[in-house]
Design goal:
CATH topology of the largest domain: Four Helix Bundle (Hemerythrin (Met), subunit A)
Order of helices and strands: EEHEHHEEHHHHHH
Strand content: 5-15%
Largest sheet: 3 strands, antiparallel
Number of helices: 9
Distance between the termini: 17 Å
Shape: elongated
Strand order of the largest sheet: 3-5-4
CATH class of the largest domain: Mainly Alpha
CATH superfamily of the largest domain: GntR ligand-binding domain-like
Radius of gyration: 20 Å
Helix content: 55-70%
Amino acid sequence: MPRSQAAFPPSLPWLGGNVVATTGRGRWYPDPVPPKTGAVNRLTLREQVLENLREAIVTGGFRPGTILTETELADRYEVSRGTVREALRTLQNAGLITGDARGTLRVHVPDDREIAEIYRVRAALESLALREIIASPQRNDFAERLRAALPPAGGELSFIDALDIDLAFHEELCRLSGNSILLVTWKRLEDQMRVVLLSSGRTEPLDLMGHAHHAPIVDAIDHADLDEATALIYQHMDIAAGQWTADWRARAS
């Protein structure tokens, strides 16, 4: 979809309606403009601005490459530029926003190297989670919980819904490992994963995000087959990295 015709999800709490892109400079403007009062909770300005910006980025409201400016965001939120600046700095430190030599801030656009690195780290983390789960005396119970978290077989999902279900399954895999450091590390990658997937520009989910590509992992856990489960998770991540890298290169060309 051309950027000039794209629309934000209507559910973001600070937008108040659909949002469309205007001009050729990559900036995005709410329509209608939210009211000047009550836009955010005055008790937690920075936190609410930060969370709303983060949500817009990871749900595709602000697409990779979109320019974010302090003055425009401060006007939309009816807060000071300093409050917006703090929120943007936090997002920049989290890798969701990048700045150029002139100080222009944009939603981060991942490159093919970064995509490959993220999926290699995910494979390492999730293979460790599999080891912990299969070694657990609660393995059978965990397998059933993962089976309940599988993407549905058949049916049509939007890209965002399929993405949410896909990532929820992998998060549950890490949670069931019982390794809190592993889970926290995976969660820190989640927003970057979402930016990678949204940068593809896809509107339809991949087969890779569906039931058939996840159920064999649960079957291997159920059979306590660590070698098979590990091979499947590495294969899953290799295919995903290859697909998203191909999409990124197609859009960059």
